[in-house]
Write a structure and sequence with these properties.
The structure is a homodimer. By secondary structure, chain A is of the alpha/beta class. Helices cover 40% and strands 18% of the residues of chain A. The first copy, chain A, folds into 2 domains: 166 residues, NAD(P)-binding Rossmann-like Domain (Rossmann fold, 3-Layer(aba) Sandwich); 187 residues, Dihydrodipicolinate Reductase, domain 2. In chain A, helix 1 packs across helix 15. Chains A, B: It comes from Ophiocordyceps unilateralis.
Chain lengths: 365, 365
């Protein structure tokens, strides 16, 4: 196999997911037979490593080599131009959560550069961007895969695409789409046993690293709304944005103006009675409260917020910080197709990216 | 797009799954833009419909046209020769459960004809056949996809392949792999409430069409053993055959020699105390009994049979005739990746076949 037959890989982003991805890529490349890929570009927000002649970058020690590089990242259009002019087909792996990189997908795809990413921004932002992305992909034949944008490495997007593409009729999608929310409610209102006070559980989750640096970024529901936007669009609903449907925020109105996450956490206990009431109301009905997202396809209705479930319901029985996604379809009838497991974390998110990369390579090489 | 660029599709088998598959294919072909496929061959056990010039067979009314055909099916080597000589790449869709067709996959693959099938026989039969299939595929580049051979359309094989190919370490696979066994135990020993007598549940399951015509074909555990064989081999274990590891049969020894399923069903009640004892023993431990398969990868140990589970365990909480498959891996840690839902039925089995077909077309066209 000549070097020019290898697919060129460019990686933007070397944070938690990016580092895990590069590590998985190194293991892949060391395998016999190895996949036909060659790393030609890698960048952080401040540095870039690449060669004008597209010479292969060694995966061993790539993070150190990037840190030692004297080159700054070119502009995104220049990176895309570099890849479009490569002597082989190229794949852009976006391991950032940057809106700027997401905005460049239509250009990349239109130039024949495939895109693989866990970045939610492109698929959950303005509907026009979504349309531009898939129009560019359709016109050029370049692929765009984003399994890890919902549920990390769990087979959520691939399963939904299979259902839709083979002609099943999706009726409803429902689930727990946030590892943080899953942990909080499994602890606060467990299906069996007693939970702690709401603010205590939030503080504990932050200490365990289960929340964003500012927990309000989880509690506002926007992360879940972005994931629902992606799934709803895959089913064909023209969702305009992640704020164009009802999203319940768990941030008390009075605390929206806090200057910091720490100030918010200090003041949250004063509002524990609100969540406690919700929990007790569910208990009186023999149920538990959970933070879920749902898409009612027929009614074109998407919503994100608190709901109550029987203790024996799979959503109530969830453990730890697991996600669960239930697909109710015509073919599957009353019992949904369910996918469940860790929906966050560097390794499992990178796994979704790596698996997507292999699928794209299989199609374009 | 010229007709010669379309991928040629040959379909063997027009039973329950075959009919659903052809119906899904018809819906696909009617879509705009339609996938680049052309049906060039279809056969039942007695008839075949094809044209020597590979002219496209209309999907509308194909079952009727096949019934009206005057041609008998050629031998399998002749069918493969016909496909290998086609003016475009070809895919053989085997919707039978025939060992003969399965035995012909190495020849088809070596001649560049891809294979898509729900047929378990090729992948769970002699280990040599498994090796021959993947060696032929590796050498020619022809693809072989068989999602529906385990759990019908549920994303079981694709998920396991993604885990393995991206370098995760699979530690254990455990689950309920038979819709029949699922229904029987969910009814006989429900997690909440009382079940009926074992023989009554078997008779009820047969009446509902949930068992094979002779229920012993479900109760002997071989169907589950075949599925475990496939998954274990995908993880890399060189399982010689589905009878090379412990498989617990639920057919009482004294009834193995019954001449018919009906005779078996009549005599089964006399042995109800055996199953009742197992159920009571589980209840005393606060558990329920289930018929499961498991693969302990590190210990190279596969087994199929009865086991006990806590009432809150996802396997105990299963409903109806659903399957559940749990993947315990290094990346997913203590909480497994779980896939759950209907694992049998014409439409969902055909869906797995259709989805595989689309994936192969995306790679070879």
């Amino acid at each position: 196999m000549s070097a020019s037959k290898k697919v060129m890989i460019a990686v933007i982003g070397v944070g938690g997911v990016g580092k895990c991805f590069l590590s998985q890529l190194r293991s892949l490349a060391a395998r016999k037979p190895s996949p036909k890929l060659s790393l030609c570009y890698v960048s952080s927000s401040r540095k870039a490593l690449y060669h004008d002649d597209y010479a292969e970058i060694a995966l061993d020690g790539v993070i150190e080599a990037l840190a030692a590089s004297s080159r700054s990242p070119p502009t995104l259009p220049d990176v895309i131009e570099y890849l479009a002019a490569a002597p082989a087909k190229a794949i852009l792996v976006d391991n950032t959560s940057s809106q700027d990189v997401a905005d460049s997908y239509p250009l990349a795809l239109s130039r024949g550069v495939s895109v693989v990413t866990p970045n939610k921004k492109a698929f959950s932002g303005p509907y026009q961007l979504w349309q531009d992305i898939f129009a560019a992909s359709g016109a050029s034949g370049a692929k765009v895969y984003h399994e890890s944008s919902v549920g990390a490495g769990l087979p959520v997007i691939s399963t939904l695409k299979d259902l839709v593409e083979t002609g099943d009729k999706v009726i409803k999608i429902e689930g727990v789409f946030s590892g943080t929310m899953s942990y909080l409610f499994n602890s606060f209102a467990p299906a069996h046993g007693q939970g702690g006070a709401w603010s205590d559980e939030v503080i504990k989750a932050k200490a365990l690293g289960y929340t964003e640096p500012d927990p309000r970024d989880d509690l506002n529901g926007l992360d879940v709304a972005r994931k629902l936007t992606i799934l709803a669009r895959l089913v064909g609903l023209p969702i305009q944005s992640p704020t164009s449907f009802p999203v319940q925020s768990l941030i008390p109105k009075e605390l929206e103006s806090c200057n910091s996450g720490d100030e918010f956490l200090k003041k949250l206990a004063a509002f524990d009675s609100q969540m406690e009431e919700t929990k007790v109301a569910a208990e009186k009905a023999g149920k538990v409260v959970r933070f879920v997202g749902s898409i009612d396809v027929g009614a074109n209705h998407v919503k994100v917020g608190l709901d109550m479930f029987d203790r024996s319901h799979p959503i109530a029985a969830l453990k730890g910080s697991d996600n669960i996604i239930s697909f109710y379809t015509e073919r599957y009838g009353s019992n949904p197709l369910i996918v469940q497991g860790a929906g966050a974390g560097g390794e499992v998110t990178a796994m979704g990216v790596t698996a997507d990369l292999l699928k794209v390579i299989a199609q374009i090489s």
